[in-house]
Design a protein that fits this description.
With about 900 residues, this protein is mainly β. About 10% of the residues lie in helices and about 35% in strands. It is built from eight helices and 59 strands. The strands form twelve sheets. A seven-stranded mixed beta sheet has the order 12-13-14-15-17-16-18. Strand 10, helix 3 and strand 11 form a beta-alpha-beta unit. Helix 6 packs parallel to helix 7. The N terminus is likely disordered.
């Protein structure tokens, strides 16, 4: 009893010592950790762990699969950090995939770290879902020195627990596109500004950074290389690399290096993308680099190298059918955009601590690629789904700005699928064979339809002739959102019509349109239709602009303007005659922004203007030097020194003389106007914004129609004139409406549907599902219709179609070709299955069956799947074989 009594405190002390050592690091000597352990290059079978101590000593990582089982030891190698400090690296080998491990760092001198955990990646064949955080530009702002720690501890970590899982290691990686510290050559900043602010997460989640300009210049790159052990598979060690995590290939690039290194990186990138194209395990590419190709909040930060990277990623995406993203920073705010013709996203993931680039603080630009730009703190979560239908979702969480702190507000979200179904091809409705006024050009197309889709964008083209490649006159790409300078300029645009103001042609014009869904999938182009420009324009005045071509020096103009003769001061040759204008400084007084203007007195035309039918036609020929700087022209309409209306801004961002023109109605009270020229410098020392042949005319024009058509009558206020609206008393019936299963000609094409059920007749003389003459209603089945094929026929689905249910009778065959997709969006009728097969159905393409209230497939005949069946939301049996039925599943059948 005496011995037990005296041993008990010893046991308690041992347990207490162990618990304390588990919870906090111990320093049994003078040695301390400068940088706590952090993960690098986590894989399926090994991981790199790094840390820094204040003196030279040997260290080890003790690790195992349990907190009381740290039986494995991996010693470290070290390099000089600064002075007496040492940066240690230890590689833990022979790990098992998809396994949780515990580890602790112990130095020979006695210092110990806390105990941490990580989880190895699964093998690619496991098709593991993965999640990432992307954030950049956390270099310390002196006015808010602890902002990065706040974003990590109050932003990232709570989102990991609420959106991803129960442990930090459920996050596969943190992508950082540069600017980790203010001055990379200042050694102390790496500890004080970066690692100490993030050490609540970095021991559990690997970092994948690339150098920003703050790391690269001023002697910072050697320190960057000391602190990070990135995949060693690039052409320039530590400056470019790639890392495969499940179905994602992450590519890191250095957008700071000189032209030789950049060319080397681009060649290496091309080789990596070629190999990615053929890699069956990789579905997406996420590239990260520091500088933007385009930046709405800070145009001087743009990079031509990133433009070339984007070109490569766009080509890869379209060639290989794999979506991609390039993450960047440099501009301190968030932006998200997408390429027009490719499934490629542009995402600025700043700022995670650097001072915000506020609207108006630096040169801004409203680029058509971007749908959102926000001057704020925040970070991005990327959730990637692997498997047969790979997707990724990006979510932007905002943390407010320098004045107002927000708590992880969801500011943006987008999901992208590799294998999405394109929306329905739109119809070009008006004008179609019509003659319209040149200042009243508004194109109108049919309503958007996509299976469970929203309308994300429209792309319009106008050409002289039906060859849009060689004869394209103008085009417009409009997206469903454009948050620029705190305003959504697209808030009232339904994307089904588009106006053009600068078309001048006497030829026959053709136009077409295509629609894009929220997954960035484009429809096919609409069938082109033609129209003509005509109508009378009565010019009331001569050119109201005095000295519009700079032939009289800068007479009549005031502001930052020069008259340049025949390429003077290494400028450009005039459009006509001997002179042209430069605005913003070519020979002298160069500035980032130049403004020049001319006042025009309109009082001599007052009686005409008071009729309310007078317009002002103005414009100019404009260009820049090399594609960077931006010349702009616009007009202010004035009444008694008060601006009552400002026109849209016309610009040209090319190095070719191009005329831009606009016509705007002059309000009755206007007595003068001001022509304003603006030049914005985005590159170089000169403001290369050039103008020539500037003009403004008052014209008497006919009123533009109030509706689409020529009768000027729209009784049901649906936007269509009575001459093309087949029922002008019902606003739901018009040429743009979607056809419904109601037996009514909803879209005014002269054909009414057959109601809820449509039947195959084969009267079109071929086997194509897409031929309307093969159906009893003389149109292709609608998504709301039940389809019956019982005419002893062979039917081929050779594109994407949708129906409500399908009945295939005996002695009939339905083939979904390799190019085809059939969606059966399954409302059951009287308890019947959504797809009843008594004949033979062969799937060489794709069949999606969903939302069945009872059964999905019921097979009394033969169902052969050579490619892919997706079955989703079936209440009872997904596939039922009745007597004599057969299902040959030679491809993939996915149950969701």
């Amino acid at each position: 009893m005496k011995n037990n009594f005296h041993n008990t405190p010893i046991i308690y002390c041992t347990i207490l010592f162990f618990v304390l050592s588990f919870l906090c690091p111990l320093a049994l000597s003078g040695q301390t950790f400068i940088v706590q352990p952090y993960l690098q290059d986590l894989g399926q079978n090994e991981v790199t762990i790094m840390w820094e101590t204040d003196i030279e000593d040997l260290g080890s990582v003790f690790w195992g699969t349990g907190p009381f089982d740290l039986n494995n030891e991996s010693t470290s190698v070290s390099i000089v950090g600064s002075g007496t400090s040492r940066i240690h690296t230890s590689i833990l080998p022979l790990l098992d995939p998809a396994t949780k491990y515990y580890y602790r760092v112990v130095m020979d001198g006695g210092a110990q770290s806390r105990m941490y955990t990580f989880k190895t990646l699964e093998l690619p064949s496991a098709e593991q879902n993965s999640q990432f955080i992307a954030m950049s530009d956390m270099q310390r702002d002196g006015s808010k020195p602890d902002k990065f720690r706040e974003i990590v501890e109050e932003g990232v970590i709570p989102i990991v627990y609420s959106e991803i899982g129960d442990s930090l290691y459920d996050l596969e990686g943190i992508l950082i596109p540069g600017d980790l510290v203010v001055t990379g050559g200042n050694y102390a900043q790496w500890k004080d500004h970066f690692f100490s602010k993030a050490d609540s997460i970095t021991p559990n989640v690997p970092l994948y950074p690339v150098p920003g300009n703050h790391e690269y210049f001023g002697g910072g790159l050697p320190n960057f290389k000391k602190y990070f052990s990135l995949p060693n598979n690039g052409s320039i060690i530590e400056e470019c690399w790639y890392k495969d995590i499940s179905n994602v290939r992450i590519i890191g690039l250095n957008s700071n290096s000189g032209s030789a290194d950049q060319n080397t990186q681009l060649n290496w990138l091309s080789e990596v993308l070629d190999s990615t194209c053929d890699d069956a395990f990789i579905d997406f590419v996420f590239a990260e680099l520091h500088h933007p190709y385009k930046s709405e909040l800070w145009t001087p930060g743009e990079s031509s190298f990133t433009e070339k990277v984007v070109d490569s990623l766009e080509q890869f995406t379209s060639t290989c059918g794999k979506a991609s993203i390039h993450f960047f920073g440099h501009t301190h705010g968030y932006s998200r955009g997408q390429s027009r013709d490719h499934k490629h996203l542009w995402i600025n993931v700043a700022t995670a601590g650097g001072a915000i680039d506020n609207w108006g603080e630096f040169p801004n630009a409203d680029y058509e690629e971007f749908v959102k730009s926000q001057d704020e703190y925040g970070f991005v979560l990327i959730d990637v789904v692997a498997g047969d239908d790979p997707t990724f979702t990006i979510k932007r969480y905002g943390r407010g700005d320098q004045d107002v702190i927000q708590d992880n507000v969801l500011r943006d979200s987008l999901t992208v699928l590799n294998n999405d179904i394109a929306p329905q091809t739109p119809l070009a409705i008006f004008p179609a064979g019509d003659t319209i006024l040149p200042y009243c050009i508004t194109l109108k197309a049919s309503d958007f339809y996509g299976e469970e889709d929203t309308h994300q964008a429209s792309h319009w083209q106008v050409a002289e002739g039906s060859n849009f490649t060689d004869n394209l006159l103008t085009e417009s790409w409009a997206q469903n959102e454009n948050f620029y300078n705190e305003i959504n300029t697209q808030s009232n645009d339904d994307l089904t019509d588009q106006s053009f103001q600068n078309i001048n042609s006497s030829d026959t014009l053709f136009w077409r349109v295509r629609y894009r869904n929220q997954n960035l999938e484009w429809s096919e182009w609409s069938v082109p239709v033609f129209f003509f420009l005509g109508g009378n324009i009565d010019t009331l005045s001569s050119n109201l602009v005095m000295n519009g071509g700079a032939e009289n020096d800068i007479q009549n103009w005031e502001g930052d303007i020069e008259a340049l003769e025949l390429g003077e001061c290494n400028s450009v040759l005039p459009f006509e005659d001997d002179f042209n204008f430069g605005v913003g400084g070519i020979c002298q007084n160069e500035s980032d922004e130049g403004i020049a203007s001319q006042m025009i007195d309109l009082t001599s035309f007052q009686s005409n203007i008071e009729t309310g039918k007078i317009s002002l036609s103005f414009g100019a020929y404009m260009r820049n030097f090399s594609g960077s700087d931006v010349p702009e022209i616009y007009v202010e309409l004035i009444d008694k020194d008060i601006v009552v209306e400002t026109s849209a801004v016309l610009s040209n961002t090319t190095s070719t003389w191009t005329e831009q023109n606009q016509i705007l109605i002059v309000p009755e009270e206007v007595d003068s106007c001001r022509i304003i020229l603006k030049g914005t410098r985005n590159a170089g020392s000169d403001n290369d914004s050039y103008f020539d042949k500037i003009y403004a005319y008052l014209i008497d024009v006919e009123d533009c129609p109030i509706c689409f058509g020529s009768q000027f009558i729209d009784s049901d206020a649906d936007g269509f004139c009575s001459d093309i609206d087949c029922n002008d008393g019902d606003g739901t019936i018009n040429p743009a409406a979607l056809e419904l299963c109601n037996g009514i000609d909803d879209n005014c094409d002269g054909i009414a549907d057959s109601g809820n059920t449509v039947m195959w007749t084969g009267a079109g003389g071929n086997s194509s599902w897409s031929n309307p003459l093969n159906w009893n209603q003389q149109m292709v089945p609608l998504p709301c219709q039940h389809v019956i094929i019982d005419n002893t026929s062979s039917v081929v689905v050779n594109a994407a179609f949708e129906c409500l249910s399908l009945e295939l009778a005996a002695s009939n065959q339905l083939e979904i070709s390799t190019e085809g997709t059939l969606i059966i969006n399954g409302q059951n009728v009287n308890g019947n299955p959504s797809c009843n097969i008594n004949g033979t159905m062969i799937i060489n393409g794709r069949c999606d069956l969903k939302n069945s209230q009872v059964k999905g497939f019921e097979v009394g005949g033969i169902l052969i799947n050579n490619n892919k069946i997706n079955i989703e939301k079936i209440n009872l049996q997904s596939i039922t074989l009745s007597s004599g039925g057969r299902f040959d599943n030679l491809g993939k059948t996915v149950l969701k």
